[in-house]
TrEMBL record:
The chain crosses the membrane at residues 30-48, 80-102, 137-158, 170-192. GO terms for cellular component: membrane. It is found in: Membrane. This is Rhodopsin. The lineage of its organism: Eukaryota, Metazoa, Ecdysozoa, Arthropoda, Crustacea. Pfam families: 7tm_1 (PF00001). The keyword Phosphoprotein applies. Gene3D superfamilies: Rhodopsin 7-helix transmembrane proteins. Belongs to the G-protein coupled receptor 1 family. One of its GO terms (biological process) is phototransduction. PROSITE patterns: G_PROTEIN_RECEP_F1_2, OPSIN. It is a multi-pass membrane protein.
Amino acid sequence: MVFITADRYNVIVKGVSAEPLTSGGAMMRIAGTWAFTLAWCLPPFFGWNRYVPEGNMLACGTDYLTETELSRSYLYVYSVWVYLFPLAYIIYSYTFIVKAVAAHEKGMREQAKKMGVKSLRSEEAQKTSAECRLCKVALMTVTLWFMAWTPYFVINWGGMFNKPIVTPLFSIWGSVFAKANAVYNPIVYAISHPKYRAALEKKLPCLACATDGRDGGSDAASTTTTEASEKTESA
């Protein structure tokens, strides 16, 4: 999610000055994701914290009950780099993405006014403003991240500093929300990206989630990127 956010920030905020994403760059990001994952998942196997059964005895999680400083230090650092930093980065990036789209939309309206037309967009694209579409995507992205990982964050810190609140039932919710994240995240990103929907419709029509008019009112990210590029080239 962080790399996807970084790519959208690179394309929309930096515009034509941004370095385009290549196949090699995409592979490097995928490799980086796995390297980052292994870097944080392997230490408990070697003594820095450990994995223990959760309250329902059906899954394992980090040990938040051991009171040694070594064990707790892993949870402190893990919380910052795996939860707080990605959350802050996503919020930061989408804040500037929304600002960039709003500024672009304002420029489009001013240009249309100078040309004496109502809008430079097609009638279909006018139905929903780019700002509104992007705000919805940004809000959903941040909300889903928060929903997926906040339960684990609360459980771990509650286990360290307020053990009575971590009951077997309470400890279940962390794994439920986190694992559900792997299901709804791809769906959300597919729905919000018209190129993905177009490819899905071509390869697997039965699974496509295309809208009427072949996505005439496509998502703000792609719309803004295309229009910004065209406007810069014409200028």
